[in-house]
Amino acid sequence: MDKILIIDDEKSIIDLLTIVFEKEGYSVSTSLSAPRGIELIDKEDFDLILTDIKLPQMSGMDILKHVMDKTPNTPVIMITAYGTLKQAVEAFKNGAVDYIVKPFDIDELKIIVAQGLEKRKLKTENIKLKQQLKEKNSFENIVGKNKKMKEIYDLIEKISDSDSTILISGESGTGKEIAARAIHFNSRRQERPFVSVNCGALPENLLESELYGHVKGSFTGAIAHKKGMFETAEKGTIFLDEIGELSSFAQVKLLRTLQDKRIRRVGGNDEILIDVRIVAATNQDLKQRLDEGKFREDLFYRINVISFEMPPLRERKDDIPLLVTHFLEKHCTRAGSKMKRIAPEVFNIFESYAWPGNVRELENTIERIVAIEERETVTIKSLPAELLAPGKKSNKGLDLEPGFNLNETLDEISKKYVVKALDLSSGRLKEAGAILGVNYRSLRYLIEKHELKS
What we know:
CATH class of the largest domain: Alpha Beta
Distance between the termini: 71 Å
CATH topology of the largest domain: Rossmann fold
CATH superfamily of the largest domain: P-loop containing nucleotide triphosphate hydrolases
Largest sheet: 5 strands, parallel
Number of domains: 4
Number of helices: 19
């Protein structure tokens, strides 16, 4: 039930409006004086305030200013018997949402009040969404306590308010875009757009139009003027992911944009001044591409003002328990399911797995488990096959020296895997067999062969 406060020194007006708005389903409080009205405003939260402008002791304008200082999102509607354009302008200038002159039409006033409450609702929801967006993209969501991650937290805090171009490197799935969003949402540009562009996902003939926009008729299909990503990100941040995939032509255009802070739409003649912070990312070695002549040296030094690398998950395995808990909470909440528990042997497998897809692969694994696993405890049986199969080894560095015995070497390797599987399954033979991909009888044979009964 929306709460309305009505302030007017005419009791007949107070009584009439109380009847009208209580009938509409509102909770109504009233005051015959401005000081009493301010006392109520300081004591309670109102969803809307109706106040006469001409009041004894204090004016309605004084009440309006008090409300704007205390709760600026509360809509205030001004009522007066002496309506002038000057008063209306002053009321709107000081924050009133509307203005009505006595004698007023009751149905018109009902509409004005309903519109004022709707504006408040939209404003409140907008504030809440912005806060949720900021929390979602806070650098605190870059989960980890690893030394390398702590250094990244510290760096993000230092560089967020800088306008310097940033280059984030790292393998796919390490969280480069999450870091870029954290930089934006912890900067003074946080209220402005964050625009993400995957340079490797767009064909070259579309990339220029996507980045810089186009004018009507500039090419087949250009049926209207279109803003590009740089214009959309005005006063905000543009994230250029996989920047190493840019063609030579696109590199030249981007270099000119960085130098001049201006863009020109495809097919257009006018240059547009832009104020955009650029954060770039790559999973490639740009210095190597530079040496190969595939990336411009001048562009590299333009984007490499501040740089850091997101470490792969295999180099921060001490963060795996934190990440697993974080993703479990996230996906259990999203699915509306009870929080699941991870069995110790599952953590052992998580920490021994190489995670070629990094944090993204870990999150996808947890999301899959939450979606499929019905039990509260996640066991080895809940895991996808690729986590249970021993990792494929590279043939680099294999030594075949004189005296090498293949059978002895295979036996030694077999024994190590059996011991590892028994350790991960806490001695439960069926689970150990599942890890190794062998049946119960074969595992019993291997245990006896390698004298592992104890």
